[in-house]
Amino acid sequence: MTINDYEAIIKDIYAEEAEKEAAGYSPVITSESPSLGAGSMDNFAGTSGIDVDKVRTDFPILSERVGGYPLIWFDNGATTHKPRQVIERIRYYYEHENSNVHRGAHELAARSTDAYEEARKKVAEFIGTPSEKNIIFVRGTTEGINLVAQSYVKPLLSAGDEIVLTMLEHHANIVPWQMIAAETGAIIKVAPVDQSGQIILHEYEKLFNHRTKFASVTQVSNALGTITPVYEMVQIAHRHGVRILVDGAQSISHIPVNIAALDADFFVFSGHKIYAPTGIGVVYGKRELLEAAQPYQGGGNMIKDVTFERTVYHPAPLKFEAGTGNIAGAVGLGTALDYVSEIGLNNIYNYEHDLLAYATSELSKIGGVTLIGTAAEKTSVLSFIIDGYTNEQAGTYLNKYGIAVRTGHHCAQPILRHYGLESTVRPTFAFYNTYNEIETMVRALYQLVR
After folding, report:
1. At a CB cut-off of 8 Å and minimum separation 6, what does 267 contact?
2. CA 147, CA 54: separation in Å to the nearest integer?
3. Known catalytic residue: 20?
4. Which residues contact 274 (CB under 8 A, 6 or more apart)?
5. What are 300-325's pLDDT values in tens digits?
6. 346-387 tens-digit pLDDT
7. Which entry of 188, 289, 411, 449 is annotated as an active-site residue?
8. Which helix (H) or strand (E) holds 8?
């Protein structure tokens, strides 16, 4: 069955659920549970070209059972699962290539270095930049933002200078700027959002003035799923002579990124958000900015020459990669990007958009459920609250049936407090999720509110 077989899904849902119920699978399905009704998925039938059943066979953990129920992984915003291809590539690395990189004269050092630098080239190609010399490997988005803040931005700042952020930011795109502002006397300005959760562009531009030294913005809100107008925001910053960083942690696995077209000065993302291992991430920086920046960590691997009087650094990107990096993680990231590229990010976006539209429509029918963040342009993030239940109670209830969602503040307290909230329930979808899984969650929530 492919993802385009929507009519077949409709016909099969109840037969499948009957089989599961007979096997003791799903007490959340009752005679009073909602019915989709014939053809109700028709409005969400896309043409993504993804064979979701085939894709799911690539992810071993999707065969896991939780409390006797098949795992339904709706916590992709926190981390994505890893396809067999990535797992096997990392295993191959440790079995055949394991060595430190760059300095060895032996065969394994050459293999390891080749694999590591090939991964750097794959990253550059994936995000649309012509040179791998613009790509720095870090542990993740958080370390990447800290690197830019400490190495490039902090030396630019004096008391009274300003950094522009937005209400949508993850804590990782707030705290590093607060830290350097506290050290230098700089001031943080915050762009507001409208009630749907979208940035108000004319208010954003008003924040720029002769004291503005830097701007940073998420491309996709991890709490709401809002796709921000980053192309326009980059242009606004540049019109005012200001450099800008784009946080791609939540966009990298959902929408195509072309750095050449975007013209962002810095772009950061984490590998584990795009089906790669944890502990590996990327900083892209324009060449002249990386040359101007000074490393904020020192050690081996990033130096040409050291005496007790002075140190000569390698050029970027190596001057920012002190010590032994996550070599296997970088190799795994390269394979993950190959995997995603083979499926096609446009195909992924189309399929996930249809999943989101379907889930939004069905959740909107449940009395007592309030959706938080309703911007017109969104990726596959839903945030909601349920009358009469804490978000933790809702998440725990769903977990009883193998449904994994995130509850809490999602490291984005300012935007949730904009809505008068401290937390939400947050299911987030990936291209290995299915309509049947969403239907199971919807029925469970109907049962809960009953």
Report:
1. 127, 245, 246, 248, 257, 259, 282, 283, 284
2. 39
3. no
4. 80, 252, 253, 333, 336, 337, 340
5. 889 999 999 999 999 999 999 999 99
6. 999 999 999 999 999 999 999 999 999 999 999 999 999 999
7. 411
8. helix 6-22
